[in-house]
Design goal:
about 100 residues, alpha+beta, 4-stranded antiparallel sheet, 3 helices, 4 strands, about 45% helix, globular
């Protein structure tokens, strides 16, 4: 079996933790203003991401005005798919927010 390792270096709408993560674990920091969009009504968006990617996703319950931690765990592939899905949702939310302020 041969395994190829690819690393994408795209600009993300979320900040990744600078601490060394284990291969199947990653912590993202999402702005408080985007958490509602990420979780979705009744948690449906975050549940769908978890179901579709196979990653376990936990959002911190800190209600501060700063970023919230979003911990992802699972296989390295499922974690990367979840990161991309979260990036996509946050980017869409940011675009909507910016278009409202124009």
């Amino acid at each position: 079996k041969s395994r190829s390792r690819k690393r994408s270096r795209s600009r993300s709408a979320v900040r990744r933790s600078r601490s060394r993560s284990k291969p199947g674990r990653k912590v993202l920091h999402v702005g408080q203003e985007f958490i509602g969009q990420l979780i979705g009504r009744g948690g449906e968006t975050i549940k769908a991401i978890s179901r579709d990617t196979g990653a376990r996703i936990e959002v911190s319950k800190d209600d501060r005005d700063t970023d919230r931690s979003v911990a992802l765990s699972g296989s390295p592939d499922s974690v990367e798919r979840a990161v991309k899905a979260i990036d996509d949702i946050i980017s869409q939310a940011r675009d909507r927010l910016e278009s409202r302020s124009e």
